[in-house]
Design brief:
Number of helices: 3
Helix content: 25-40%
Order of helices and strands: EHEEHHEEE
Distance between the termini: 13 Å
Length: 98
């Protein structure tokens, strides 16, 4: 199952985000293959305001377990997180879904 995770930073969290970023990236790399793509969300001025991740897990429960230990959540960087099921159709310029 694929999921779109959209996470918005709390106010004035840039310094905290930068302090936790290495742990966040290391955590993603530990779950090899579960993150199809990820990146930062930017405001109109190009400043970081959150993150978006397309992730693949066998179930929502597995995703929720990952999120419970996600450094940006445990450190209080992400204030609002939404999760939606997603059907990835095109991946790396190839049709992979229906």
């Amino acid at each position: 199952m694929q999921f779109l995770v959209t996470a918005y930073d709390g106010e004035n969290c840039l310094e905290k985000r930068l302090a936790v970023r290495t742990n966040h990236i290391e955590n993603i790399l530990k779950i090899n293959g579960k993150v199809l793509c990820a990146g930062g969300l930017l405001d109109e001025e190009g400043k970081m305001k959150g993150s978006a991740l397309v992730m693949e897990f066998a179930s929502r429960e597995e995703l929720d377990d990952y999120l419970a230990h996600e450094p940006y959540i445990t450190a209080g960087v992400w204030e609002k997180v939404t999760v939606e099921r997603m059907n990835v159709v095109i991946f790396d310029n190839e049709k992979v879904g229906k």
